[in-house]
Amino acid sequence: MMTDKELDALFSEARIAKADPSVDFMARMLDQAYAAQPVAVVPQRAVVVQKSGWRSWLVGWPAGLTTAALSGLWLGFAGPGVADVAGGLGLVEAAQTVEMFPGYDTADVILSEG
Q1: What pLDDT is recorded for position 80?
Q2: Which residue in 31, 34, 42, 65 is a FRET match for 81, CA 20 to 30 A apart?
Q3: Among 13-22, 29-38, 49-58, 60-69, which is the least confidently predicted range?
Q4: Which domain of life is it from (predicted)?
């Protein structure tokens, strides 16, 4: 049986000695690691079939028709006679004006120097 001093000497000797694995050992380890890994499966890309002929012209018609209908409704309702579109839609009950400087013209106060 080894004493504590002998063990300490053995461990200090092991710390000093640098033990690099050999090239053959590393090659065998890598071969075993590659053999243990599952084979990578590369997914196939889906093939997109382009529509051709008269069907390709009709693809976006629902979106275009909806946009045109809503634009026409908006312009017809909020035409030149309605000054405030939000007020015309009933979203604003009453417009309020807030005086920043009561008794003064706001443009004169903001644009004045000094």
Answers
A1: 56
A2: 65
A3: 49-58
A4: Bacteria
- DSSP for 21-90, please give it: PPHHHHHHHHHHHHHHSPPPPPPPPPPPPPP-GGGGGGTTHHHHHHHHHHHHHHHHHT-TT-S-HHHHTT
> What amino acid occupies position 50?
Q
Contact yes or no for 100/106 (Cβ under 8 A): yes
Residue with tokens 């200090």: 12
Q: Output DSSP code: residue 91.
A: S
CA–CA dist 73, 101 (Å, integer): 41
pLDDT in tens, 4-19: 999 999 988 888 887 7
pTM of the model: 0.26
CA-CA distances (angstroms) from residue 89 to 65, 106, 108?
23, 30, 34
